[in-house]
Predict the structure.
Amino acid sequence: MKPVRLNHNCSTLFNAVAIALSLSLVSVGSVSADSGAGITFHDIAAGDGAGITYRRAGSPSRDAIFEAIRTQPVFTFFDVPRTPEKARGAPGVAIFDYDGDGDLDLYVSNGPGVANSLYSSQLTEDGELHFVDVAVQAGVAATDMDSNSLCYGDIDNDGDQDLYVTGAGEPNRLFENQGDGTFRDITASSSAGAGNQYPAGCSMGDVNGDGLLDIVVANNSATWDHRLSVFQPFGHNAPNQLFINAGGNTFIDASATSGVQTLVGLPPGESGRTWASAMVDYDLDGDIDILFGDDQGAIPDAASGGVDRGIIHLLQNDGTGQFTDVSIEAGTNHPGAWMGFAFADFNADGYMDMFGTNGGDYTLQLFPLPMELGAAASRWFLGQADGSFSSPGVGDLVSTVFGWGVIAEDYDNDGDADIMYYGGLDTGPYIDKSNPGVVLRNDGLANFSYDLEALAGSTNHSRRNPQGVAAGDLNNDGFIDVVTVSNVDIPESFPLSMYPIPFGSVMDATAFYFPSFTPSGPGEFVDSGLRAVDGTITVEVNSADNGNNWASVDLMGTVGITSGGKVNRDGIGAVLSFLPRGGEKAMYPVVGGASYGSQDSLTVNLGMGHARKGLVEILWPGGVRNRFYGLHASERMTLPEIPCSFDADWDSRHDYRRCVRTALGELYHAGKLDRKLRARLFTSAMRAYHDARENDDGVSSDDSRHHGRKPTRRHR
C-alpha cells in the first residue's frame, strides 16, 4: 500500500478534530468476525465478578486542574499544554504468588485515598477462580500514595518476592515480603525511594553479577500537572535511575555513575521522556542490559528539522554494571512514542526479538505532525547475529493502533510467541480509543496477523483505557490468561467518534476516539460535558480449548545454596529456550518488570503444539548454560541453577561430573529437590556435556546451532 502522509500544521489540529467530530457518532458493541474454534478470552471480573471490585481513583490535584480548564468559556490549541497528564493515574498490575501457596495472585495500584489491591487467589481444585483483596491485612495498601507502576523480585534471596511500587510526585515504596503473607515497608531504610519524580515504570535485574537484584526506575517528567514536556524537547523531563542492591535490603544510587543517564542523541545533562523500561539480556552474553522507551511527544523528529528525542535507548552492560548506549549501532533509534516492551524470539532464529508499543497510526490524524503511515507503528524488532535489530515494518497488518501494555506469550500453545497489546491515549482534547484489544497471531516466522476470531470472542476494550497489562496462568490449565487495568472507562451511553482517514486495515472499523471537547467555532472548542468514569480490571481467562499441549517452568537461582551459585533466587535475567520434539525453538527471557508499568508471572509457559516432549536450555545470568531433556507435556517443573556450564572448557568430563554432583547434592540437602528430580537433572547435565562436544542435541542435527555456544554479538 502506498504510504499515506499526514501533514497537518498547528493551526489545523482542531480543524481536523472538528471534521472528525462532525462525522456520525457511533456506539460501540462487539467486533464482528467469522466464527471459528480458536482461542478466546473471557473476563471473569466483569460486573465485579470473581471478587474483583477494583475502581481506579484519580489524582485529586490533577483532576481539579483539568476540570478548571474544561469549564472555561473557550478551549483552543494553546490550552493543550496546560492540561494535566495522567489525571486519572497510570495503574500497573503484577501477577505473582506472594504467599507461596502455588496460586498466582494479583497486585494492582490505585490513586491517593484508595487502597491498592492485593487479590489473593482462592483457586479451587476444579480450576474455578475467585479472589479476596487482602492488601490492608498484608501491609501493601499504600492508601495515601498516588501509586502507578510496579515490579517485584526476591531482593534478599530468602525465597519470597518483594514489591516495588512507584509514586507520582512522591517517593517510591519498597515492601519486603515477610514470608507469612505480610509485607514490611522498608523504603526509608533501603534508600530506594528515588525522590519525588513521576515514574512510568520499573524493572529488577542483577546488573553487576553479585546475585542480588538491582532496580531501574523509568522517570517520565518533572510533573504531570501540565503537558509542557510534550511540546518542549527538554527542561521538563526527569532522568532515569539505577539503584544497586548492596545487600541487607539497602540500595546505592548509581544513576550518575553507571552510564544509564548518558544517552545518545540528547544534549549533555538532558533526559528523555521515558514511558517504558526493561532489563533483559538482549545480546545473550550472560549479563543484563537495560532498555528505555522514550516519547517524541509533539516534537518534530530530526528528519523534519527537529530532534530525535523519543527513541528506544539500548544500554549495553559490560558485565560489571557499567552501561553504554548502543541504540544507533543496534538500530533501535527510531523516533516514536514508545510505551511498552515485550521480548521473545519471534522467528525461531535463536536471537532475542522485541515488540514496542507506540503511538499508532490513527492517533496521529489529529496531531500537527508530518508523519507517514507506519512511522509511529507499534511494531516488532528482530534480533540479528551482530547484536543489531531489523525493523521489517508491519507487513499485512497495514496499520497499527496505540498501545500501552504488551505481552509476548504463546496464547494458543502452538509453539511460537504471539503478541497482545492494549491501550488508549488521553491527549487532553480527546481520548484515543483505536485499540479494542489487539491479538497478533504469529506464524512462527514473525509474520503476524490480526486474530479477528479472538478479538470477536473476547473482551472489547473500546470503552476502556487500559494501561498496565500482565500475563500468567491463573487457573493452572496450561494456557496463559491476561489481566489489564484501565485508568478510565467510557459509559456505554456515550458516543464515540471515528477517525476520519481509513487505511484499508481491519482496524479501521474500530478506530474511535472519545471527545472531551466539541467544536464551537473556527479553532474554538467547548467542554463536551461527557465524563469518563473510574477505571476497572479485566481478568481474561483463556478458553484453552484447541487441544495443544503445554508445559511450564519456574527457574531458581542458587546463590547462597550451592557453593558456586551466582544467580538471584527468582532466576530473573535468565533466558529460557525450548525445543519441542519435531518443532521449532522458542525463546523467552525472565524479566522483572516490562510491559507498561507491570510485570508478568515469572513462570515460563511453553506451548508444544502436538509434541509430547521437549528440550529446555537455560542461559543464566553470568553465562552458565544448563539443559534439561525430556520435559513432558503437562509437566510443571522448577529448574535450579546448576553452576556448571555444559559448554565450558572443562579439563575433563570427570571435573564437570564432580561439579554437577556437588551442586545437586547441595540442592538436595537444602530441600530444594527430591531424589527423582535430582536424578533427572544429573542425567540431563551429562547428556548436555556429551551433545555439546558431539554437535548433537539429541533432537535434530539441523537444530544444533541453537543449542551450542552462542554467537558473539557485542557492540564496542
Q: What stands out?
A: The longest strand covers residues 464-472. Confidence is low (pLDDT under 50) at residues 1-37, 696-716. The chain is about 10% helix and 30% strand.
